[in-house]
Description:
The protein is mainly α.
Amino acid sequence: QVYNSTLTWSQYGSLCGPRAWRETNMARVQMLCGHLQGHRVTWSGRFKYVRVTEVDNTAETSVDMLPTFLGDWLRCVYGERYPACNSTSSTTGNNELCQLKSLTRHDCHMK
């Protein structure tokens, strides 16, 4: 269940951020802040740095468990074909997809 919350970024930082870790300890803060799971917040601001720690694509994970021929078929049915990668006038997005295509060795991908 999702709750609308009035929690501000500043409040979150003092309750669950590094300031709180220094005042008590990280384990206690994580237990306390676990109660905020499911709260919907609206914050605006700018990020200086982002690091992806985990990516979860349940559909892709499930397809990877299937035999190769079936997984490849499902990727094309529910996903999209990679672009034709022999063109020299590819866009940046297509170039990235072409690099992925050569690494994954699949004809299609699931977003």
